[in-house]
């Protein structure tokens, strides 16, 4: 992509998220003392055009993705199928080494520090 | 084309971007028919219930003389590396609480550290804008210090976070205040790829955190001061695969969900969020009023090995344990009598087998937490 020139002169001072979102380009300022090269403007426009293409792509993809409930269903069954040493109630199998943090005290598995 | 014509095109392009983004927001909203908590409740799930002596602090790792900023476990079970304001990395055997290495850093302003997959090296980075690698098996110098075995230079801003590519001792990814992430080849010390940056479509502000997927090590996410998280494919540096909007403040921390198909984020806006990688859906927001007027920032997050628990460190010293599925706080490690840290928890991490959580704090200590209660096997 043509990007040999800095677009920093098109940046507004830091503040709220810029209107264009993905880039920090704003309306280029011109005036008697600020000469902006055409190359920089073309680079900024190219960046914005890329943004437009990406967002359009994502909009098109969304038609194929389906609702969040489908993902939630998958997530729920996945999470509940994995043995987790930190849960009071969990799928097996248990690995004996989970309790290595409490070895050394024969009387109790519980430690308070 | 004249300057004024270009200006017009520029304004028109911005308007198009804004309008499309609004369309995207609306379309996504329509597809969010439920969040995880809504779905789980509908399916009759109840929150995880901890007894008062279930999750206990079973080790305190003392030795740093300054705030702990970062920690990382080794994939082999019991070793941890930590980085501190005192300008040192310490390598611990978490099981015995012994220090195996204390590394005095050439630059004291360290922000992040990571263990290599094989456990032979550690990496760190910070305000020097460099990621330094130390080989733990190297001989020490006359003062007993380990010398840097490789310096990864090239960032134009501080190194905020680093992580080795899973199962690859020779590659790691850094995030930086220069708005980029970089994939490094440690053998050569060179940048393999730069993600984002001035001429690319990447983050538009400092990048604060990275997390690499364990199930697909070509995918990683980054979190930034531009309030977004971005998903990257290491084969495509020119643009992010997807940008995740939603947060209203700096995204301080990102962490892949154990299954690699989701990731969590934590932000200055006080919320954590869970996003789906494939669809981009925001599946859940985790937010609870802490009782104060000011909303505490999320500093660090970690998932338990199944993903059922989400551990979150906040800037006010709280460390909430969230039930990920029900989006409820089930425990606060920050208020456990005699066990809590005495200051902000800045970093969190789970051991490789998920049996222990390590918390690092501005009180200079690290603590290990494990389940010491009666475990019911389903």
TrEMBL record, chain A:
What SMART domains does this protein's entry cite?
G_gamma
Task: Give Gene Ontology CC terms.
Answer: plasma membrane
**What residue intervals traverse the membrane?**
none
- UniProt subcellular location: Cell membrane
Residue ranges of region Disordered? 1-32
Keyword list, A-Z: Cell membrane, Coiled coil, Membrane, Transducer
One Gene Ontology term from the biological process aspect of the record: G protein-coupled receptor signaling pathway
InterPro entries with a match to the protein in the record: G-protein_gamma-like_dom, GG1/2
- Ranges for domain G protein gamma come to 41-113
Statement: the UniProt record of this protein carries the keyword DNA repair: no
Q: What is this protein called?
A: GUANINE NUCLEOTIDE-BINDING PROTEIN SUBUNIT GAMMA 1
UniProtKB/TrEMBL annotation, chain B:
Q: Any stretches that span the bilayer, and where are they?
A: none
Give the domain of life: Eukaryota
Going by the UniProt record, its keywords in alphabetical order are: Repeat, Transducer, WD repeat
- The residues forming a coiled coil are none
Biological process (GO) annotations?
Answer: signal transduction
| Spans of repeat WD | 61-102, 152-194, 200-242, 244-285, 338-369
Q: Which InterPro entries match?
A: G-protein_beta_1-5, WD40/YVTN_repeat-like_dom_sf, WD40_G-protein_beta-like, WD40_PAC1, WD40_repeat_CS, WD40_repeat_dom_sf, WD40_rpt
Q: Which family does it belong to?
A: Belongs to the WD repeat G protein beta family.
Q: What is this protein called?
A: GUANINE NUCLEOTIDE-BINDING PROTEIN BETA SUBUNIT-RELATED
Say which species the protein is native to. Salix purpurea (Purple osier willow)
The root-end lineage is: Eukaryota, Viridiplantae, Streptophyta, Embryophyta, Tracheophyta
């Amino acid at each position: 992509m043509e990007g040999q020139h800095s677009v920093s002169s098109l940046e507004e001072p830091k503040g709220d998220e810029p209107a264009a979102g993905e880039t920090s380009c704003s309306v280029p300022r011109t005036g008697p003392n600020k000469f902006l090269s055409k190359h920089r403007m073309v680079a900024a426009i190219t960046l914005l055009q890329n943004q437009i293409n990406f967002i359009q792509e994502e909009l098109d993809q969304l038609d194929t993705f389906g609702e969040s409930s489908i993902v939630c269903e998958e997530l729920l069954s996945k999470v509940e199928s994995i043995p987790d040493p930190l849960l009071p109630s969990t799928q097996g199998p248990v690995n004996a080494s989970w309790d290595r943090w409490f070895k050394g005290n024969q009387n109790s598995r519980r430690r308070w520090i | 084309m004249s300057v004024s014509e270009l200006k017009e095109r520029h304004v028109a392009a911005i308007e198009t971007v804004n309008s499309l983004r609004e369309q995207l927001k609306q379309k996504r909203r329509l597809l969010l028919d439920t969040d995880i908590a809504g779905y789980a409740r509908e399916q009759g799930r109840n929150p995880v219930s901890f007894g008062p002596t279930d999750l206990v602090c079973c080790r305190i790792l003392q030795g740093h003389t300054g705030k702990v900023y970062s920690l990382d476990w080794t994939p082999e079970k019991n070793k941890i590396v930590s980085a501190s304001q005192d300008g040192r990395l310490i390598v611990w055997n978490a099981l015995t609480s012994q220090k195996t290495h204390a590394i005095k850093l050439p630059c004291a302003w360290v922000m992040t550290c990571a263990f290599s997959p094989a456990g032979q090296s550690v990496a760190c980075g910070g305000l020097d804008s460099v990621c330094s690698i130390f080989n733990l098996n190297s001989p020490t110098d006359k003062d007993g210090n380990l010398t840097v075995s490789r310096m990864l230079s090239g960032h134009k801003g501080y190194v905020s976070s680093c992580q080795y590519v899973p199962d690859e001792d020779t590659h790691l990814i850094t995030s930086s205040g220069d708005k980029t992430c970089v994939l490094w080849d440690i053998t050569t010390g060179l940048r393999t790829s730069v993600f984002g940056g001035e001429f690319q479509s990447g983050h538009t502000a400092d990048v604060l955190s990275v997390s690499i997927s364990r199930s697909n090590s070509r995918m990683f996410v980054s979190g930034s001061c531009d309030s977004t998280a971005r998903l990257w494919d290491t084969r495509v540096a020119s643009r992010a695969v997807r940008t995740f909007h939603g947060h209203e403040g700096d995204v301080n921390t990102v962490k892949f969900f154990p299954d690699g198909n989701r990731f969590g984020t934590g932000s200055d806006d006080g919320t954590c969020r869970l996003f789906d990688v494939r669809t981009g859906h925001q599946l859940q927001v985790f937010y609870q009023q802490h009782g104060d007027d000011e909303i505490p920032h999320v500093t660090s997050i970690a998932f338990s090995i199944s993903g059922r628990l989400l551990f979150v460190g906040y800037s006010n010293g709280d460390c909430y344990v969230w039930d990920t599925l029900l989006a409820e706080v089930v425990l606060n490690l920050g208020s456990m009598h005699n066990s809590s840290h005495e200051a902000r928890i800045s970093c969190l991490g789970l051991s490789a087998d998920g049996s222990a959580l390590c918390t690092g704090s501005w009180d200079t200590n690290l603590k290990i937490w494990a389940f010491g209660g009666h475990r019911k096997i389903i």
